[in-house]
Amino acid sequence: MSPQTEEKPDVKDDFVKREIIWPKVLFWIYIHCCAAYGALMIFTEAKLTTTLFCLLLIMITSLGNTIGAHRLWAHKTYTAAWPLRLLLITFQTLSMTGSVYDWVLDHRLHHKYHGTDKDKYNFKRGFFFAHMGNRYHTSNPESEHLHTQVDMRDIEADPIVMWQNRLYWVFAIILGVILPVNTPMEYWNESGVNAVFVLGFFRIAVSIHMVWLINSANILWGLDPLDKRSADTNLVFLVNKSLWPQYHYLLPFDYRSGEYGTYNEGCSTAFLRIFAALGWATDLRTIDTNTIRESLPECVKFKKPLVNVLK
């Protein structure tokens, strides 16, 4: 059974008490205060070229996490040639959000135990916890054991991912800090202070929040944290794929599912199609509406979840 088709286990939904880790709280307060100062510098002192360069890095960082870490490595929605994998893992490293291996491990666990307290980003604890609070609370006591239950053989077979994982902090410091901060000082005489706060703190903070939204956006785009029904029982939305969270969490291998509440549109999907046109991305996986509609009677007839019928 592949990482994308394994059935979700039955989990007793009891909240585990999480303790606040205060040094991490202070760390994130510091990062966000510096990022806020960087935002002020954009409007008061930083050169326009610096701001445009910052936006460019944020955009390519987003691609590294959306069509890279998320759609390619976590969900295998398509196959990528090695130049594209190398490009995307470079973009992902810029975000300073951990290695692709660790991100995929957490995200697959997130899908496997979605909506339970074994999910690190449990949306039933509220948006803030799902988005950021989990970063400075203690983990579920079972988390170490749960991570061993996630099938990561496909990721471990990718030498590019494993090379990044082994040397992550070397690559992260060089690609994520030194080069972005040094570039504006070297090529258009930006001040060191502006470079550090705009290309360092502000850019990294924005990139981090965009990555965090991948795991927390289900609340913003229609998944009621008080709704106890399984997504498997809400089949009608699948006909037009209008209720994004349920569709993505039931059929995560569809390359058209965007990270921020969209389907078959958005910047990341557009770039993925460009890479497909270049021959770098192949075997793009999706399910058309007619296939879903035709599968619904089988769900009723054989009393099987839709995801099993579509396998």
From TrEMBL:
It is a multi-pass membrane protein. InterPro entries: Acyl-CoA_DS. GO terms for molecular function: iron ion binding; stearoyl-CoA 9-desaturase activity. GO terms for biological process: unsaturated fatty acid biosynthetic process. The chain crosses the membrane at residues 20-40, 52-74, 167-183, 195-214. Keywords: Fatty acid biosynthesis, Fatty acid metabolism, Lipid biosynthesis, Lipid metabolism, Membrane, Oxidoreductase, Transmembrane, Transmembrane helix. The keyword Transmembrane helix applies. The keyword Ribosomal protein does not apply. It comes from the Eukaryota. Its cofactor is Fe(2+). It is found in: Membrane. One of its GO terms (cellular component) is endoplasmic reticulum membrane. The histidine box domains are involved in binding the catalytic metal ions. Belongs to the fatty acid desaturase type 1 family. This is Acyl-CoA Delta(11) desaturase. It comes from Cacopsylla melanoneura.
